[in-house]
């Protein structure tokens, strides 16, 4: 029977850490995508609002309304800048998470390689034991089947 891989608990732990890092990476990716979508929505809203401002100014508008439009556009621009910063933060967190996941992948692969080597070694050891047993059985069978010396005539 093959002996248990002595580092199996570490291999299992590395697998669990890698799986957790993969889940975290997925969560970070989703947050990044949500931030990107909000950024895009703000940009579209800004363009729609600019088009509305342009259309309204062609028809004529009061100075106070123009000032309100411009103030609101300024607020939209500030929101877009903040959202762009959030997108960059999310991207950075995702990249950091990816590096962490890759490091955990490498560690897992190292333990897995050791585990595979252990399995190969155990197979070789078992094959040798089986061969030795077969040789002993053959040797014992040969001893029992040896003809006795013929009687002198």
From TrEMBL:
Chief subcellular location: membrane
Q: Gene3D superfamilies this protein is in?
A: 1.10.287.1700
Give me the ranges of the annotated region Disordered. Answer: 122-153
Cellular component terms, GO, for this chain's entry? bacterial-type flagellum; plasma membrane
What name appears for this protein in its UniProt entry?
Flagellar FliJ protein
- Keywords, ordered alphabetically: Bacterial flagellum biogenesis, Bacterial flagellum protein export, Cell membrane, Cell projection, Chemotaxis, Cilium, Flagellum, Membrane, Protein transport, Transport
Q: Would you identify the family this protein belongs to, as annotated?
A: Belongs to the FliJ family.
Signal peptide location: none
Read off the NCBIfam families from this record.
flagell_FliJ
Q: Which GO terms describe its molecular function?
A: cytoskeletal motor activity
Biased amino acid composition, Basic and acidic residues = 122-135
Compartments, record wording = Cell membrane
A GO biological process of this protein is: bacterial-type flagellum organization
Please name the Pfam families in this protein's record: FliJ
Membrane topology recorded in Swiss-Prot or TrEMBL = Peripheral membrane protein
């Amino acid at each position: 029977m093959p002996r248990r891989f002595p580092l199996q608990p570490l291999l299992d732990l590395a697998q669990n850490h890698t799986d957790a890092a993969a889940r975290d990476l997925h969560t970070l990716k989703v947050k990044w995508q949500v931030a990107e979508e909000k950024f895009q929505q703000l940009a579209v809203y800004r363009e729609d609002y600019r088009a509305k401002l342009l259309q309204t100014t062609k028809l004529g508008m009061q100075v106070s309304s123009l000032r309100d439009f411009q103030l609101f556009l300024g607020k939209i621009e500030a929101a877009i800048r903040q959202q762009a910063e959030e997108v960059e933060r999310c991207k950075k967190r995702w990249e950091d998470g990816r590096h962490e996941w890759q490091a955990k992948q490498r560690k897992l692969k190292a333990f897995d390689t050791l585990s595979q080597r252990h399995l190969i070694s155990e197979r070789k050891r078992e094959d040798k034991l089986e061969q030795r047993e077969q040789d002993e059985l053959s040797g014992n069978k040969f001893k029992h089947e040896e003809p006795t010396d013929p009687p002198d005539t």
